[in-house]
Amino acid sequence: MNAQVKTHQTIEGAAGAEKEIALVGNPNCGKTTIFNALTGLRHVTANYPGVTVEKKTGMMKLNRQDRQAVVIDLPGTYSLLPHSPDEDVVHDVLIGLQAGSRAPDLIVLIIDAMALERNLFLALQVLETGIPVVLALNMWDAVEQNGYSIDADRLSAILGVRCVKTVGNRRKGIAELRRAIESELDLPSVGRFRTCFDAKIEAEIESIRRVIEPFFHDADISRGEAIRILSDSACRNPLLSRNGHSALINQAISQSRTKLEEQGIDWTSFEPVRRYEQIERICGQVVRKISNAKTLTERLDQILTHPILGFLVFFSLITLVFQAIFTWAETPKAWIDAAFRFLEKLISSHLPEGALRSLLTDGVLAGVGNVVSFLPQIFFLFFFIAMFEDSGYMARAAFVLDRLMKKVGLNGRSFLPLLSSFACAVPGILSTRTIQDRNDRLATILVAPLMSCSARLPVYTLLIGAFIPATQVLGFVSLKGLTLFVMYVLGLLVGLVAAYLFRKTLLRGRRAPFVFELPPYRVPHWRTVLTVTWERGKEFLYRAGGVIFAAAIVLWFLASYPKSASLDQAYEAKRIQVQAALSGQVLQDRLKELHAHGAAEAVASSYAGRIGRAIEPFIRPLGFDWKIGVGLVSSLAAREVIVSTLAIVHDVGTDEDSPANLAEALRSEVSSETGLPVYTPLVALSLMIFFVFACQCLSTVAVVRREMGSWLWPGFMIAYMTVLAWGASFIVFQGGKALGFR
Amino acid sequence: MDDTEWIAIVIVGLAAAYLVLSFICRKKGGDCCSGGCPIDPRHKKK
Q: A238 preceded by cis ω (within 30°)?
């Protein structure tokens, strides 16, 4: 092999004399190994102006012509319709729109032979650039190992290009590839495969092609570009920003899209739909299964993607995750609790009694500490999700649930936004941008906040920890873990039912297609898993340090003011009276009782108490008292603030007379009127159900407003979720009471 | 009013201002999860 390395500047200087060969392919298809094999394992890098993406260039000597060729290794891309800056580079270089560069003389299209279907999408687009192409079927050994055969000659005949089988990392087929490159440069293949669309679409492609024709030397290139410009909703094409031409092109695009819409054609998806139809036909002709021996991935997929077994495994795994959250997170949670109590004691011993001490201990530490103590649960949840994602299982879960989602009229693309919403609805809603159909997207946005986000986890775990008995169901499933699982599943199921109803009523329309690739299984990479877990958990910590911290301070003020001098005096008098009359344990018990009554009355007469009492009539039928009412109002800032609020209004702190923790405070709260416990398992269940369905998140509302461009849909979302939350809690509480539960 | 009460009230005022500003920021779409928060520079645009 005759190879040498030159700098990019040298190459550009000699560009007129030397042939340029671009290596193009999907990410991780083995481009760089082929590049190294062709150029002699040495390369230099050069940046295109304006982007930070690197391309590698090297030199390859062409034997027969005794000339050199520049080999350019371009970034990996799945499509010539770019979505990111590195994909822009590939597109612009191949189309000849890259400033200071010309279109290459030949493209070596590298295909991962084991992922022929996916790789052929880019291949069909590249074939339409008009540039001579040599196809390298790389990783050929994996095809045989996995019991498949690909008829390379037949593929070559169908596509109208030279095909070479290669195994880049073993340098197999490289000599054949070099010969094919030279032959193609000498005598380019003819009769290329071309994707033809419906006549109505072809007419619009042609009308746009005529407008952009002056920019291209080749009709094939301008046609391919017209297809992309027509279907590119993101409008990334550089032609659209060229002065003096953009208005004309935009006008043509707009007219063509309107015409297609009028004819009921989705201009965003016609290209992938048609190309994948053809890819399916091509693969049907060239790919054969020659061995019945199954790979590990295939064997696992027989179970994990099975319509029934797949569901069972999915739900079993999720149940296990929730069990683990409760059992494994207990110890670190206790450490965090202990750290906050230590801090409280430290402040109490160094600051004199007064407003500032109360603010720091009863407000900040009680409020923030009670929320932060749920951090281990959140980390465990994200850890398991990251494990599922990195192992390849999450794609199977998406596949299994896709069947369910199709049944309720949602697009398969809705799975990832809904999955993201289990962490936070805001990124979930933003990721619905990948859903092309507006009605699909809107239905997904409307139900995304029903997925239980990480902010709900502290509320669930507090109430479950305090009120759900630590018993086992079926002898091995913890009732606490099961209850948590039910809360998550309830949000998901009601979300799917709601989506079905929306798609049948408000958001009627056809379903968009969805293409799905299942990656092979692999052992999760620990660094990836830990990084993802940390990044997601960090968001929760930021919230605790920002909104929750500020809300705890404001809530402390609302729960402590206005101060009533007469109330203080009355309780002080009672305290003196009791101390004079009693002694020993009886005195301590009586003082504790007095303190609780005094604190309750002080909070009841505070601003927070007044707000809570004002909304109490509306929430009383759900079993909630005014203290929960204050929590519901404050949870609009962030859902988990209700935990801080309950800690503040229940006077959880280091005071000797204060309850040791919030769960104990809730359990021991007794009604002064009836003498019965205020909070019961039934009230806890009703409150959790309310939190599953209520839209108490201003961030979510704000982001829906921005994505939809009006207040109509966020307004509708708040209304339907509030009605759903109130109705479900009412049924649970009143129904439970009627059945004799407490 | 005890000696430390005014400090507590100032802190409450700052916290309330933070909440109001972050609400305005979210209304303008500056949520930490989406477009970068103008109040908290740690929340860079993703």
A: no
Amino acid sitting at position A450: L
**CA dist A517 to A26, A30, A281, A335, A386, Å?**
14, 19, 17, 43, 19
The residue in chain B having the minimum alpha-carbon distance to the alpha carbon of residue A634 is B19
Check CB contact under 8 Å for B4 and A430: no
Of A424, A547, A550, the CB nearest to B33: A424
Say yes or no: B21 contacts chain A, CB-CB below 8 A: no
| Helical packing angle, A393-407 and A375-391, nearest 10° | 90
Residue B12 is nearest to which of A426, A553, A699, comparing CB atoms? A553
Question: How far off is chain A from B38, nearest CA to CA, in Å?
Answer: 13
Pick from A176, A150, A117, A131: which is nearest to A24 by CA? A131
The string over B4-36, giving b where at least 16 C-beta atoms fall within 10 Å of a residue's C-beta and e elsewhere, is beeebbebbeebeebbeebbebbeeebbbbbbb
The answer to whether the CB atoms of A426 and B2 lie below 8 A apart is: no
Distance CA A193, CA A198 (A): 16
Distance between CA A509 and CA A459 in Å, rounded?
Answer: 38
User: Hunting for tokens 């399916």 — which residue is that?
Assistant: A280
For the stretch A355-403, pLDDT in tens is 888 889 888 887 788 778 778 888 888 888 888 877 888 878 878 877 7
Q: How far apart are CA A261 and CA A581, in angstroms?
A: 87
Residue range A615-648, pLDDT digits in tens: 999 999 999 988 898 888 878 767 877 887 888 7
Chain B residues with CB under 8 Å of A706 CB are: 29
Give the Cα separation of A227 and A95 in Å (integer). Answer: 13
Distance from the A358 Cα atom to the nearest Cα atom in chain B, whole angstroms: 9
| CA dist., res. A72 & res. A721, Å (int) | 55
Tell me: the pLDDT tens digits for A245-303? 677 788 888 888 888 888 888 887 888 888 989 999 999 999 988 777 677 778 888 89
Q: Which residues of chain B lie closer than 8 angstroms to A637, CB-CB?
A: 19
Report the alpha-carbon distance of residue B26 to residue A578 in Å, rounded. 52
The CA-based angle A216-A220-A221, given to 5 degrees, is 45
Contact between A367 and A556 under an 8 Å Cβ cutoff? The reply is yes
Torsion of the alpha carbons at A333, A337, A338 and A343, rounded to the nearest 10: 140
Which pLDDT score, from 0 to 100, does residue A1 have?
35
Residue with structure tokens 């002065």? A243
Closest CA to A318 of A497, A490, A472: A490
The answer to whether the CB atoms of A354 and B2 lie below 8 A apart is yes
Q: Which of A484, A535, A523 is nearest to A387 (CA)?
A: A523
Distance, first Cα to last Cα, chain B: 47
**Closest C-alpha to A109, from A74, A81, A149:** A74
**CB A357 to CB B31 under 8 A?**
no
Q: Enter the pTM of the model.
A: 0.61
Q: What is the 3 state secondary structure string of A503-526?
A: HHCCCCCCCCCCCCCCCCCCCCCH
Q: Judge contact between A249 and A229, C-beta under 8 A.
A: yes
In A408-477, alpha helices (H): 415-421, 425-430, 438-447, 456-467
Chain B residues with CB under 8 Å of A357 CB are 4
Q: Is B15 on the interface with A (CB under 8 A)?
A: yes
Q: How far does the CA of residue A553 sit from the closest CA of chain B (Å)?
A: 6
The amino acid at B27? K
A-chain residues near B5 (CB < 8 A)? 354-356
Q: What is the largest CA-CA distance in chain B?
A: 47
Indicate the angle between helix axes A681-693 and A456-467, nearest 10 degrees: 170
Sequence-ordered alpha helix ranges (H) in A128-269: 140-145, 152-159, 174-186, 199-212, 219-231, 246-262
Q: Residue A416 and residue A583: Cα distance in Å, rounded? A: 64
